[in-house]
Amino acid sequence: MLAGNEEDIANLVRDNPAAIAIYLSDNFEENEILKAKTALSLVTRAHNVQILARDAGLRRDTLYRTFGGRIDPQLSRVLRLLEALNVKARVTPASRIASPSAIATRLSQAFAFDHPTDTIRELSTVVKSQNVTSLARELGIMRTTVYKTFGGTVDPQLSRVLSLFETFRVRLEVVPSTEPKARPPRPKLGRPRKTLVERP
Q: Where is the stretch described as Disordered (predicted)?
């Protein structure tokens, strides 16, 4: 687990997919939304947000608002951010489970899609294959809310997805992309330093 103050972690995860994967995986491990939002916020702020927004296909202000740590981000935006950071999400059994479950395998296949819409549709298929009444009871929400949230047409909030994963005893793990996308180099944070020109 990466430890230290926020500035040290930000310097470590800046343009470093392996460090980003370790840091986010550690914070997604317990399926707690507050830890997940804080980690996503720190990783986002560690990068040049304008370039990161361009790579994620989002507006800069939308990226700030979504990953500022105050609101519950939608799953598709989280997946787009991870793609822009050159990391991917996959689903693994929780650490307290000894053998891999079939649900973890199916969910991992859902998160292997390149487009978030396909991931959301496949997540819907996995949820609908379960006993939705007992699943709703375990999640502490109404059955109609399960169908509405995971019906495949609505982009679910990250907190609902993490609650679902806690119920399934799986967790979201972040790994570096095997084929990082070619992008122009990102400029360093902040404005460029002014160079003093000597006058003759």
A: 177-200
Give residue 185's Cα distance to chain centre.
22
Tokens of 61: 């202000």
For residue 44, the Cα-to-chain-centroid distance in whole angstroms is 11
17, 180 in Cβ contact below 8 A?
yes
DSSP secondary structure, 40-66, as one string:
HHHHHHTS-HHHHHHHHTS-HHHHHHH
CA gap 36, 21 in Å, rounded: 13
Side chain identity, residue 4: G
Residues 169 and 94 sit within 8 Å (Cβ to Cβ): yes
pLDDT of residue 12: 85
Distance CA 5, CA 24 (A): 15
Q: What is the residue extent of each domain of the chain?
A: 7-176
From CA 64, how far away is CA 129, in angstroms rounded? 36
Say which range, 38-42, 80-84, 106-110, 196-200, has the weakest mean pLDDT: 196-200
Cα–Cα distance between 96 and 115 in angstroms, integer? 30
What is the C-alpha separation between 61 and 10, in angstroms, rounded?
Answer: 20
Coil, helix or strand for 30? coil
pLDDT of residue 187: 58
- 9 pLDDT higher than 70: yes
